[in-house]
Each structure stands twice: as structure tokens, then as C-alpha cells.
Specification:
The protein is about 30% helix and about 20% strand. The longest helix has 14 residues.
Length: about 250
């Protein structure tokens, strides 16, 4: 285990497998760590150690929280598409004078056959232009409203929790949580006659099997690219990198 030369109190903005792995390692090392979850999943996988659930009330609320809780370093290990909390974390850490690290798993390497789009609106436009019928949509339950006007395509939608708000009229919903296998993903796509997969470049092994299955079956892929990180962000791609960053002294250099 690393040596922490000064008393530290770490806030992990979590919800990912990397966040849970980091919390487990820090708790085992006796570090004072608090994990925060957004509360968007009804039954989240909880990390080791103390956990809080819910928002902070924007960047201003997070500044107040960092000061009140005497946080000495923040690690943003949220989902790569949780752009709002990442922006708020950067603003709040700068205002509170607290070191901030972003822990992000690497992106999936783009295949030549992928259609890359900058955002979910671009994905909806790509689907509208596609002449086929059956679409496998794995972009999350909060983005379904942009596909709701599309009554021409059949949508196979997979989410962890049931969606809220507008959804496509021709939709088959599957409630499931990874990790997935190539065999299972292939069988699912065959069963529903999928010709187009729409997903986000989340990276990591938990949900990568769908890409291997799509490639083997000749299913076209529309990939939503990640939003950019705030300028000047310190970034690591592994839990070990985050531990090294912390061990240099209360999250600082």
C-alpha cells in the first residue's frame, strides 16, 4: 500500500467500477475516503467505506461541501459522459483550492466501420437517415427522448432502470446490467434482427462485447464520442495511477 505523508480526506465522485476499486484500495489502506453517488440508479453497486447519495446543488454547493467536510483532494471517477458533474467538480475544486484528479478509463479504439457522432442529437440524426429497420440502442434511459419522434424504426433499448419520459413508439425494453458476453450479445442481436447499434464510447470491458458481436454480425455502429474534459484537467486512466497521484501528498504534486 502507498504511504500518505499527511492526513487526507478524499472525496471520490463515483458510480463506476474504477471508483469502487479505488475506494476499496483506499479503505483497505486506512485512508479517510468518502464516495458520492449521483443517485440515478435505483440499486447502485455500493463501494467500500462511507457513501453519500445525491447532488450537491451545482458547483456552488460542491464548494460549500468541500469546505465543510474538509476535503483535501477530489477524484472524479464518474462516467465519461457525466459531463455536468465533471464541469462542476472542476469549477468547485478550483474555487475551494482543492486538488482534483479525473480518473477515466481509456476509450474504445475507433474502428474504420464506425460512424462517429459528436453527441446524442447526432446519433438520432444518423438513425433517422438509416434505411434499415431494427436499432439496438444502448445510450442510457435519459437520452431516449431524442429518439421518441422516430416511428419508422424498431428500437431494442437496454437500460439498467426503466426509462422516464418520452420513448420511441416501436420499442422493446430490456432491463439488464453488464458485464455482457459476446455470445449473449450476438444472440440478442440475432433474435431482434438488429442492423444498427447505437452506443456511447464509454470504454472498458463491461460493455465492450456488443462491439465484437456487431463486428462479427456485420451490424453497423453509430458511436457517440465523449464530451471534452475541462481545460487543464489532470487525468489518469487507471486506479493505480490515481493511487500514485494521491501518495505524492494529499493529492498534490
Amino acid at each position: 500500500m502507498p504511504h500518505y505523508p499527511e492526513p487526507v480526506r478524499i472525496l471520490i465522485l463515483g458510480g463506476t467500477g474504477e471508483a469502487r476499486a479505488l475506494a476499496a484500495e483506499l479503505v483497505a489502506a486506512g485512508v479517510d475516503v468518502l464516495s458520492s453517488l449521483a443517485g440515478r440508479v435505483t440499486q447502485p453497486r455500493l463501494p467500500d467505506g462511507p457513501v453519500r447519495v445525491g447532488g450537491f446543488g451545482g458547483a456552488r454547493g460542491l464548494v460549500a461541501f468541500l469546505r465543510a467536510e474538509q476535503i483535501t483532494a477530489v477524484i472524479d471517477a464518474t462516467h465519461p459522459f457525466a459531463g455536468q458533474i465533471t464541469a462542476h467538480a472542476a469549477q468547485a475544486a478550483a474555487q475551494a483550492g482543492v486538488p482534483l484528479l479525473v480518473l477515466r478509463r481509456p476509450e474504445w479504439a475507433a474502428a474504420p466501420s464506425w460512424d462517429l457522432v459528436p453527441d446524442i442529437g447526432g446519433a438520432a440524426a444518423a438513425v433517422r437517415a438509416w434505411p434499415g429497420e431494427s436499432v439496438f440502442l444502448t445510450t442510457g434511459r435519459r437520452d431516449l427522448d431524442v429518439f421518441a419522434p422516430d416511428d419508422r424504426h424498431r428500437f431494442l433499448v437496454r437500460t439498467v432502470d426503466p426509462p422516464e419520459g418520452p420513448v420511441p413508439p416501436r420499442m422493446t425494453l430490456v432491463l439488464d446490467r453488464g458485464p455482457y458476453t459476446v455470445e449473449g450479445e450476438s444472440a440478442l442481436m440475432r433474435r431482434h434482427g438488429v442492423g444498427l447499434l447505437v452506443t456511447k464510447n464509454s470504454g472498458g470491458p463491461m460493455t465492450e462485447a456488443k462491439l465484437s458481436a456487431a463486428a462479427a454480425l456485420g451490424v453497423r455502429v453509430v458511436m457517440v464520442e465523449r464530451p471534452p474534459l475541462p481545460a487543464g484537467s489532470a487525468v489518469v486512466t487507471t486506479v493505480a495511477g490515481a493511487v500514485r497521484w494521491l501518495s505524492r501528498g494529499s493529492g498534490g504534486e
